[in-house]
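User: quick one
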Amino acid sequence: MRKNLTQRLLQAVIVLAGVTLLIFVMLRIVPGNPIETMMGEHADAATVARMTAELGLDQPLYIQFFRYISSAVRGDFGTSYSLGKPVSQLMGSAFVNTLILAVFAALFAWIVGIACGICSAMKKNRLPDRLFMGFSLLGISLPVFMAAMFLQYIFAFQLKWVPISGTDSWAGFILPAIALGWNSAGQVAQMTRTTLLETLQEDYIDTARAKGRGPLGVLIHHAFRNAMLPVLTMMTVQFSGLLSGAVITETVFSINGIGRLMVQAISGRDIPLLQGTALLATTVVILGSLLADSLYSVLDPRIRKEG
Amino acid sequence: MLRTKQKRTEQAADLRLQSQIGEEERFGDLMRRMARENKTAVISFFVIILMVLAAALAPLLTPYEENGMDLLHRLSAPSTEHLLGTDEGGRDVLTRLLFGARVSLLIGVVPALLSLILGAVLGAIAGYRGGIADAVIMRIADVMLAFPSMLLAMVIMYALGGGILNVFLTLTLVNWANVARVVRAQTLKLRSSEFVEAAQIIGVSRNRIMRRHILPNCLPTLLVLFTLNIPASILTESSLSFLGLGIQPPNASWGLMINTGRQYLYNTPWLCFAPGAAIMLTMLAFNFLGNGLLDVLDPRMQKQ
Amino acid sequence: MNDRTLEVRNLNVTIRTDRREVRPVNDVSLDVLAGSIVGIVGESGCGKSMTARAVMGLLPYSGKVDGGTVRLCGREITALPEKERRKLRGSEISMIFQEPMTSLNPVIKVGKQVEETIRLHTECSREEAKEKTLAMFREVEIPEAETRYHCYPHQLSGGLRQRVMIAMAMVCKPKLLIADEPTTALDVTVEAQILNLLEHLRDAGTSVLIISHNLGVIARVCDYVYVMYAGRIVEQAATEVLFGRPTHPYTRGLFRSVNSLREGSATLETIPGVVPNLFRLPAGCSFSLRCGQCGANCEKNMPELLETEPDHRVRCFLTEKEDAE
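Assistant: Done. Structure below.
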């Protein structure tokens, strides 16, 4: 297990380095000098040259890259061109908002998804099953931006139950979290139903019933944990899905999170900010999958002892 | 979504190999079986055909022009004249929806096809050659897969700039890694299968084995991936367009229509919800079809 | 005091599949006397497992008991509400299954799984339950009980897992243990140990109903044997009687194929044909299609299960005739 974890960590670091390099290279192939773009048409050549040298943009690409890495490791991601503040500072406050949003969305997705999945599995092929599965299919096929706008239109605009946008109060997070978690909830529900139905066919379920366990006891004590193992692997995928969706949700609901910061960075042609946010988001995804892997091996004794 | 499906696709491909159904059952039979067993998939197939027809015949189906401005009738509600109302430029929404279908379907199909080819070739090379080629290709794929797809697309679109060709390229770059992983896994299994070993023993060249034995056996899996990649591409593009990073006006994809309609969400919600409904319908249809194919290819499902 | 632990009378089980119905258990009556081991033998698909499941109340969802009674120590149990049935399972009747590999929950420690039975049926503290479990582990001869308690199923051998299954079934001292092919998945040496264990349990006061297709197992431990074919009992007798004078053509066929193996004859004797599809049973005797001595009557009517000698019953027209003569 320990060796396994070290291996995984090492792999994560390699992937992270690759990601950094990829982002770095991609943002450098953008045509035009970013300083010129930043300063507008009226900048004189001397100032542009001075700024370029100051930011080290006249150095060869690989030197720029190693400089970036070495300062990034120390928590310095440079200064945002468009907002004039250190990128790390901007990301810090935005990250909290995105994290709250993502955690709420994940909670919504997991609670609703698992509950629906269990109900469906228990009432297989009957009305509740069809209803829940219809809903989850809708969830899967509904793009995040549609869910977001739909919820905003109905609950914030028509019914005025919650604020339309912003995060001045906790209520501001409700709709965005639901919009963001909707999709995942559908996936979790379908996956839970499938794996639960498969697990209920296992021999040890018969054993549990032969012991005198009732249907609910069998479900909770014997089927659920086994069925959740594959669902758990989905967590990795969802982590990255949630972050993708966060870009949209934050835009629709005007939440100052990492996703919105990225959109701002793109519209402001702000390379340090874009680089920092993309890197942060990807790091979170990689860490998330690492976490899911470790959790899996904690829950499944067969894997735990092997590694 | 796609990656969960991918997992099942892998498993299905696996089981097929074990039971060797692929060899006994011809492709046409598979499709016929799907038609018998999975009505939803058949309906979805016809919905897709209808959509393609509607997109292709758009100019014949509507009296209005795609960009026919009519400033006297801006933002009018749905009526018999304009079934889905008009937008901020007085353009007929239904007409733009039909023309948008051309762009959106193209954006679904082209990158799905390109990423399929790129992914299949790289995956097969990685799986069949092994060694350094494998290590390099798969590490690159790992890096691509570590990115949340939307963020990757945003960064690439930023680097390349807007426009439909760049959207194609971006979506191809975003999706190939998935395909490569599935194809590599399957190639690895095929490589150790008896008929490939037999071919090696009688001295068939590597390239020929790859072309004649490995890729054809991956075809059903590729078909499923293709079907599931289409809605994924449409979704990513509409999200990009929603943020203003995808297709640029005056071309209209459904995502872009939503993006422009968003400003009028509270007064004229149909500007957003009509193209939104179109996107959902497309995604549902392709997902149903993909699931149908998956079920047919998964021998475990056949027994039930 | 009733000396019959289990008393099954005219039990029918139907299973509904896509608008069709089959009856895998048809008019089955059997007794398990207190302190005895009784066997049910037959080919796969003959309804022996389904009989056991009906007694346990663990039929698949599409199946139900329609007709007949099951008495446990004189108490009718088929009509009991599900909640009451559940209380009986694990405490009064227990069951162990064919596949010890897959019959234990892979993510729970085996000790905890045994403890679960105790805690479901008795009020006792964690420590007491653990002590009882360890005592039970020793009773079923699991070495190093304390260590095994903390093992997961995948860390144990097949034989040990089956012992855990038995411990789990026996820990509440049930009156009846149903063993469904308890040794089929095990090595021959382990099989002998498990059978010894079952005999030991019988001597300690639990009646055992063994279901097996293996005549060797049946001969080795059973006091009384029922032979099933296509959902019906076709012959029943004490073990020595049945093995000494097999009467029904099907039972004889079974013995012939085993003997031809044992005597190393050049060709393996088999019963021609296959187990009939329950959807397409012949009009008369179920075995008529494969029977070498099938007469006109056999194809039309189902014979009764009649005594040919004291406590030896056979369902065959041929033996009836012999009686008449």
